Each structure stands twice: as C-alpha cells, then as structure tokens.
Amino acid sequence: MSSSTAVPGQSPIAETAPQSLCALEPRVPADRLVGEMVPPPRFDSVRFDTYVPDPNQPSQTEAVEVLSSFAAGLGGAHATGSGKAGSASAGWRRATGGWFGKKQAAAPAGPRGVYLDGGYGVGKTHLLASLWHATPAAPSLKAFGTFVELTNLVGALGFQQTVQTLSGHRLLCIDEFELDDPGDTVLVSSLLSRLVDAGVALAATSNTLPGKLGEGRFAAADFLREIQGLSAHFRPLRIDGEDYRHRGLPEAPPPYSDDQVTRAAYATADASLDDFPALLDHLARVHPSRYGALTDGIAAVCLTDVQPVPDQSTALRLVVLADRLYDREVPVLASGLPFDRLFSDEMLNGGYRKKYFRAISRLTALARDAKGLVAQ
Predict the structure, then answer these.
(1) Residue 359: exposed, middle, or buried by beta-carbon count in 10 A (0-12, 13-18, 19+)?
(2) pLDDT tens across 214-232, in order?
(3) Within a 10 A sphere around the Cβ of 174, how many other Cβ atoms?
(4) Are 4 and 11 in contact (CB under 8 A)?
(5) With 90 as the cut, is the pLDDT of residue 302 above it?
(6) How far apart are CA 292 and CA 83, in angstroms?
(7) Which ranges in the chain belong to alpha helices (H)?
C-alpha cells in the first residue's frame, strides 16, 4: 500500500510500506523448476572475457582457456547413447589434445565432463555460467542449477521423468555439488549416469565432505571418489586464488541501527522488512526449493536485530537463502550483529564450514551493495 505511512517513533514517511518475507509462502510448480534451470540473474551477462583472472594465479587463466575450448567442442551433434561421445567429443580432443592435455586415440566412454575445483570466491560459478553461455546450443538444450535445485527437480518430477526431461540436453552444469549428503549424492550420481548414457555433457563445482582439514578448499579427490563410476568423465581443473569478493575492496559496512534500517525499508520501493529471528523461524516452514520464489519482486532485504544463528539446521537454511539473494543481486541492509558473527566457532570449524564461509562472503558483498539505501 502507498500513503503517508508512520514509522513507529518517527515522522510520517510518504512512501510505500515494505513487504514482509515472513508473510509469503510461495508455491513453485514443477514446470517452473525446469524452466528456471539457467544461470541466475547475477550471472546473466557473465562471459569468459568478463572473468578477471588474478595475475598471481596462473591456474585462473588456464581455466578460462580450457573451458573455452571445452565449450567450442560441444558444438557438434548431440552424442548418442551407450557411451558414444560423437563429434562433440572429437571437437574437445582437437581443441585440447586429449582429455588431460595428452594425445590419445579415442575419448573415454561417455560424454565430456569438467570439474572446477577451488575455494569459495575464486569465480567457479562465474566460469560455470560462462561455459553455459559459450556452449553453442539453444538455451532449451542447456541446463544450469545448484545441486539442491537438481534434487528438488527429481522430487517434483520423479526420477524417470527427470531423466527424460534432461536427456535431450547438450550440457548440464551443476553448481555446488553437495558431497556432505550421502543419500542425495547417490541419487544425483545415478541420475548423471543415465544422462551420460544419453550423451549429455557435464560440468560441476562442489562443496567438500565434512571433517576435512584446511577448510576444504580443494575437493577433487572427494568429488571423483563419491561419484565413483562417473569419475572417468570429468577432467578436474584446479583454480587457486583468494575470495574475489574481498580482493581490493573495503570492509563491509558495520550494521546500522534499527531506525536506519526501518526508514530505508520504507523509503525503498519493493523492499522487505523483517525481524531476523522471525525470518529464521519462517524459513523452517518454507521448503528451500521455494527460497528463490520467496524473493520474487524484492528489490532489497532489510533485517533488524541480526543475532547468532541458534543451530545447524537453521544455519543451513540461511545459507540457501543467502545463495538465492546473491544470485538475484538483492542488497541486504541489517541491524544487530555483523554477518561475520552469524555462525558459532563450532559451526565454522565443523563439516559445513565451507558453506558458512560462503554465506558470510556473499552476505558481506550484499551488505556493501546496500550502503546506498541509507540516507547520509
């Protein structure tokens, strides 16, 4: 509604009252899940030539070159079943001199595949989306989604229908392959095996297994072991580097006051305004597959009273919401604690630490984006 709306304790503000995410319970039909398997809005315009490699990390430049050749090699006829790679595989071999940079007489059975291996913030999703854009095929013949989105698709369509839906694709890109859920890993590995037989090319990034040291920055061995029979279809590309979201950028702004956040929410068209603990409670009642739809039409998320996340289940739901907000480039303005204090030391040292560090990194970037919402 719009009118002269009073903020408690303040003068009336002649703006539109903000929405509340807690009041929304979106329903997402299965056909939307399929239709939205494209790079998220943040990555609509990314290309290989917009990726800026760190000059101190030659693996980043190498990854662009290898993936560019890989995309060009997918321009041939769609591979057929029974593991026949077809002309697209031949293009890959001509462009790269073989699967691992070595001349060889024939491609391994099945289609092509690449696995982008690196820490958070080195641009793996940017490169994966660039591969999707660069692959010479109609958008309807390419699919891009996170591991969670892929498992949600199986849940909505059923296993066989998902196989049938994706089997005609030239390329399937899977971002953030979840190695920490054994059941879902087996499910998706079985799905990929069927798609391999149908001639679909694969590309993936992944999270790491719980309990790994060094914050699980590199996961190729874990990934290839967990997908077992599919490992021969993937060439690992290790991408070194630091988190680009903080490379050469100022620190995130400190949290604002409740009053500043509230006033900004009322002054910003299509903003939402929620109490952080209440939003966490609401996320428990909305399936994570709907978190993207939860943010439809939201131009900015304003949160008051940010507090430490109380438990791991809540923390993992917040990670999914942070990913969807980041994908959609929705700025986040908050009061309370800074985002680097959301998760306990126990969480940051546990098996899901890579997810939590990614969420902190992404929310920090969105907090920077929100600075202009606050009147100076």
Answers:
(1) buried
(2) 344 556 677 777 776 777 7
(3) 22
(4) no
(5) yes
(6) 35
(7) 30-35, 58-72, 86-96, 124-134, 147-157, 159-166, 182-198, 220-226, 258-267, 276-283, 291-294, 312-327, 345-348, 353-369
